[in-house]
Amino acid sequence: MIVSDQQLINSEVSVESRIFTIQDILNYLPHRYPFLLIDRIENVYGDERGVGIKNVTYNEPCFTGHFPGLPIFPGVLIVEGMAQTAGAMVSAILPAGPKEVYFTTIDGVKFRKPVSPGDRLEYVMKKTKHRRNMWWYSGEAFVNGICVAEANVSAVVDQASL
Known about the structure:
The two termini are 21 Å apart. The protein has 3 helices and 7 strands.
């Protein structure tokens, strides 16, 4: 089922948005330093949509080698941040208890502008489809309102976790 913008607008009327703090994210995802790539998720509407936040600092381990003298946040980590945002939203709607959400596909990735220390990445994720234990999302990453990357990702929940 493809979710239209009108369906999202209609669902916003009846459902309040949530904020996931870092403590919530740690409960929803198994990722930890240095591979937890989101600090907060805002405007969460169930598994329909949400905005992941990543505050990029010079202290990120990737800047040691990417690139000396010209620190650029790696595109693959931007896409992983998108996937973690979607994964946390999926994990949050599932019944309580241990669950594993796995990133399964990446399609249509485009990197538009470099991301540097001091930037605040916003991962805008929208569900496009859900079937059984699989979810599909379209995502865009923004810095100061400018799109720096986009991708379509999917995730699967381990059946034993359901």
